[in-house]
Amino acid sequence: MFSSITKGLLRGSKPVVLVIAVVAAMSVGGTAYATKFITGADIKDGSVTPSDLSKGAKNSLHGDRGFRGFKGSHGDGGSIGATGAKGDTGATGATGATGATGSTGASGTAGTNGTNGTNGTSPVYYFVEATSAGVLVGTRTHLATVSGATGVYTVTLTGAPNTTACVASGTLVGAVGNITTALNNVGVITVNTFDNVSPAPAAAARAFTVTVHC
User: How far is CA 87 from CA 84, 144, 181, 214, in A?
Assistant: First the structure.
């Protein structure tokens, strides 16, 4: 019975100081008990467990919640990290829209006039006029002689010029009929004149002119 009383007292006591007083003399059912004081020295270390404590004793073990601490200061900023590796080149973007047409630029300075070209050489030109008898008409003829008669004449240009690239043409003067001309390479012209008898024109004396262009 004493142990049960002691156990009850322990459950209601605080763990800091444990003092139990038992009445000097108790008589329970005719049995006498001696006075006994229990101190902390009478309790074996580690023998009292939380299950041995009362609910009130357990609650008294927890102190009041303390004040919330002050917010700490910001820590120093970290050092800048090393530069990362260069990324891959991005894809080519789409072609932009065509810009507006710019304004017309100022007129440039006028260029200098070109030099005049040299005058070209006048083409070589010969003119011969003869009577039906093969005589030169001096006022209109130059640089030539005529021989022959009765429709067959030879006109020779003075100095035997190179007439490879020249052309001779003949015209009858004052009579009907036909005329042909043939020019060689050294300025000799064969002239043939004909009458107008059909169907077979015959050679006939005719006055004529011959023009030579080169």
Answer: 9, 98, 95, 83
Domain shared by 129 and 205, yes or no:
yes
Q: Are 11 and 58 contacting, i.e. CB atoms less than 8 angstroms apart?
A: no
Q: Which residues of the chain carry a pLDDT beneath 70?
A: 1-37, 40, 62-63, 114, 116-122, 140-142
Q: Into how many domains does the chain fold?
A: 2
Closest CA to 167 of 146, 182, 152, 178: 182
Q: Are 149 and 134 in contact (CB under 8 A)?
A: yes
Confirm whether 56 is domain-assigned: yes
Of the candidates 193, 209, 180, 187, which has an alpha carbon nearest to the alpha carbon of residue 143? Answer: 187
Q: Which SS3 state, helix, strand or coil, does residue 129 take?
A: strand
Q: State which residues form the domain around 23.
A: 2-60
Looking at 11, 44, 60, which one is the last position of a domain? 60
132-185 pLDDT per residue, tens: 999 998 776 667 889 998 999 999 999 899 999 999 999 999 989 999 999 999
Q: Are 154 and 165 in contact (CB under 8 A)?
A: no
**Which of these, 121, 123, 122, 125, lies nearest to 142 by C-alpha position?**
125
Residue 183 · residue 154 · CB < 8 Å: no
Which residue(s) pair with 153 in the sheet?
A: 148, 191
Q: Could you tell me the strand order of the sheet in which 167-173 lies?
A: 125-130, 207-213, 167-173
